[in-house]
């Protein structure tokens, strides 16, 4: 008798029932546009854009999705029925992204919009998609060696430089700085780190204590900041090339605004108290909503309106300070963020 | 003909295959269609050659590892380091080829990559086995440690870069073999071949029987004269070898290797073995069932997307499926044991 039990196969019926149960239990929650969740079969000829961001647990990509759906709704109102297929993996994984690109093509997507977790991993999948007649555009993090027709996002090296420049001003052009760098595999973040270092080299009074990588969750990032600060009490400034630790309020208690200054990329609602309390006097916000909104417009222009689209499309950073806090909070609310505190919205 | 059918339905994998087919049928029925880009004819979103092959390809990388991991599980051990072996193997191969300045390469490059991948995988497996046997520490602890160590080595060696591989490796992993544009059957065929080799090893060789014997009752095996140390080292070597093979295919298919590759794969690999009926207490399992387990897990993942369900439920559904499978398997085994006991008394 073979040791593998026949009984082992029986429980798999239960697994199937779970899937069927889930299938019968209702689909994805209705999003901003009805088209956004329509199944491929019911599309009625709508032009489908597969949106594959880095991670569906990162709020910046959820705002990109909101922007993409808004642009799809606008395009639909103008006569081009456009819908967004949300194919973002739950965690960052270039290999899974490559699989999602192939899946989008197999399911009849008309175009793909992608933020690359690992450019080298997805380049082959992008090229396959283009070869099969599906144009691909990248946003946030590019795959420059691929056949993608356009990229929309910030210039990462310049973003790093801008962070360091602002931090140098806040620190009076002297002191010790640490770089918070996120995931070491992301090419766009590495470019930002290089930008920070290049700018720091221009300031004789500034020295860099170290570059700290971490898992890109708010808790892991905040823990890394506290660990580094304890190990190097002389740190007076943090150049954060992403806003991860500021998505939690914990550093408001762990860091003293009189001793430490932070300049961070991003400007999401949970980060606003840091500006208000002076720990992060400047945020360089990426208007992440526009990742989706502008990119979908570019795709519609290129594919449906047959217009020329530049290959490189730069996104400008928005400087958020105490003075512009109210304006930025209102902008976030307008873009669909539901967690903007009213006290900021009411600011002049 | 009737006896053939009876044998097919009575095979240990019949239920698993039927579940996969049934799930496939459900997906086909509810997937919807899209117009073909060339002909304009409707194409089923699931039942088309590209999606089916892509699903098998997605499963193949951890299905191959699951075959090796299943052998370890049958022996009563566990290997948590397979994902890290995959990453280290891919990174080492990429670094070795980059150091020679090879951009495209040819047959020689492919052979070199095969040797490095299988060699590094085998070496990692041997180290795992030697540590388990030599230090007499539970494999869970040893492979938990090597999981971090090996990924750390990959991280330091690669400097966290994603390193491109010569195009000849991608050409091999993505060879169409005449199937048509963007249809790449090499990972699928490799998975089938690995599962077949695993099945032959476990079911048709003395060494395979020894693995079952050790996992079923280590003490009895020792008294029977089996050399447990050798067997344990052998099963970990096999697990490392399959991880190396998966890395060779994965790195070639995606065209690059990085230290973050296959992060979390160990859980999918173990889940595949368990869903395929392997018992974590040892003595039970099958290479073919592990492959089918991997296919089923990928199919469940695929179904969430094909049916346009909220993908946030993916982990919940897979987790539930694994727990339900194991709990029902144990209950079923208890019931069978009771029935056999009753029959024996009668």
Kindly describe this structure.
The complex is a heterodimer of chains A (348) and B (346). Chain A has 348 residues and is α/β, with parallel strands linked by helices. Chain A folds into two domains: 29-153 and 289-314, Rossmann fold (3-Layer(aba) Sandwich); 156-285 and 318-345, Rossmann fold. Chain A has twelve helices and twelve strands. Chain A has helices spanning 11-24, 59-77, 94-106, 119-131, 156-170, 187-200, 218-231, 251-254, 272-276, 288-304, 325-334, 342-345, and strands spanning 47-52, 82-86, 111-114, 136-139, 150-153, 175-182, 206-213, 235-240, 261-265, 282-285, 312-314, 318-320. In chain A, the strands form two sheets. A six-stranded parallel sheet of chain A has the order 2-1-3-4-5-11, with helices on both faces. Chain A has a six-stranded mixed sheet with strand order 7-6-8-9-10-12, with helices on both faces. In chain A, α8 (251-254) links the parallel β8 and β9 (261-265). Chain A is globular. The model of chain A is unreliable at 1-43 (pLDDT under 50). In chain B, a hairpin with a 6-residue loop joins β1 (33-35) and β2. Chain B has a single domain (61-330), classed as ABC transporter involved in vitamin B12 uptake, BtuC, CATH 1.10.3470. The mean pLDDT of chain B is 90. With 346 residues, chain B is mostly helical. In chain B, 73% of the residues lie in helices and 3% in strands. In chain B, the strands form two sheets. Chain B has a two-stranded antiparallel ribbon. A two-stranded antiparallel ribbon of chain B has the order 3-4. Chain B has helices at 2-10, 14-30, 49-74, 82-99, 107-135, 139-158, 167-173, 186-204, 206-216, 218-223, 228-254, 265-275, 287-306, 314-345; strands at residues 33-35, 42-44, 163-164, 256-257. Chains A and B meet through α1, α3 and α4 of A and α2, β1, α3, β3 and α11 of B.
In terms of topology, how is this protein built?
The complex is a heterodimer of chains A (348) and B (346).
Chain A: H1 11-24, E1 47-52, H2 59-77, E2 82-86, H3 94-106, E3 111-114, H4 119-131, E4 136-139, E5 150-153, H5 156-170, E6 175-182, H6 187-200, E7 206-213, H7 218-231, E8 235-240, H8 251-254, E9 261-265, H9 272-276, E10 282-285, H10 288-304, E11 312-314, E12 318-320, H11 325-334, H12 342-345
Chain B: H1 2-10, H2 14-30, E1 33-35, E2 42-44, H3 49-74, H4 82-99, H5 107-135, H6 139-158, E3 163-164, H7 167-173, H8 186-204, H9 206-216, H10 218-223, H11 228-254, E4 256-257, H12 265-275, H13 287-306, H14 314-345
Antiparallel strand pairs in B: 1-2, 3-4
